[in-house]
Amino acid sequence: MTPALHQSSLNSIPLINRGKVRDLYQLDDQHLLIVTTDRTSAFDVILPTPIPGKGRILANMAQFWFRHTQGIIRNHLASDLSLSDYLTPDELAQLDGRGVVVGRYTPLPIEAIVRGYLVGSGWKEYQQSQSVCGLALPAGLQLAQQLPEALFTPSSKADVGDHDENITYQQMVAKIGPDLAAQVRDISLKLYQSAAEFALARGIIIADTKFEFGLDEQGELVLIDEILTPDSSRFWPAKDYAMGSNPPSFDKQFVRDYLETLDWDKTAPGPELPDSVVKATLTKYQEAQARLTEN
User: Fold this and answer.
1) Is the pLDDT of residue 191 over 90?
2) Which of 51, 128, 155, 187 sees the fewest Cβ atoms within 10 Å?
3) What pLDDT, on a 0 to 100 scale, did the predictor assign at position 1?
4) Cα dist from 56 to 34, 52, 159, 233, 279, whole Å
């Protein structure tokens, strides 16, 4: 297993922010550098145990999907400058497939979540109210059942250490306005549908996922952050799928399931992960990458 990068250290350029997984640096007025580390978060808490190599997989998969979906919406990837003009050789070596140059945009204060299947918090809510994020659903649906149509269920974007909260579409409209809200919803559903069809042909069901958007200087929508990675999505092997039970997955759910067995209140600090969970999680991420990006 390769050494883990828990935190990047690039002294040649200003650090803007350390998120749950990504470190963000400023290259110039128009460009940022995203470094995807091996940090892992669950339940909005950064865990102390990194997963070696996970950051490279996430960066690679996000770039793959950004290219795959560029016909639907413009994304933040930029290729008009060289990192060697900004970083020392040692700093470049530290990146090792984790660094991505992107344009600088104003992020929207929401996360755009699309759910294609009834699982996770959606299943829990459905059992209580026959709805998901306030959207009414038919009676009699089962755990992990495909929804009659994919649902757009936005959430607020919390600071590191705080919990994201589901919001209604009307609350999103209040935050960003009706025109922008409609664009975000429609594009998110289109992105999900395109990706779900692509993935299913490769033996993977995308049960749900989240997207993030920003605005350029003209107020036009741009796809930012990460897209369709095992950190931001629920990936199921199609051959093992069956309604009524949680399918095995190629994503962060394995870590969440382990944490649910502990006596932990889901607040910081998070517990250490045992080697067995670290290795199994990395294997799942590697398989998702191979199935989706290497065929």
Assistant:
1) yes
2) 128
3) 62
4) 12, 9, 24, 17, 15
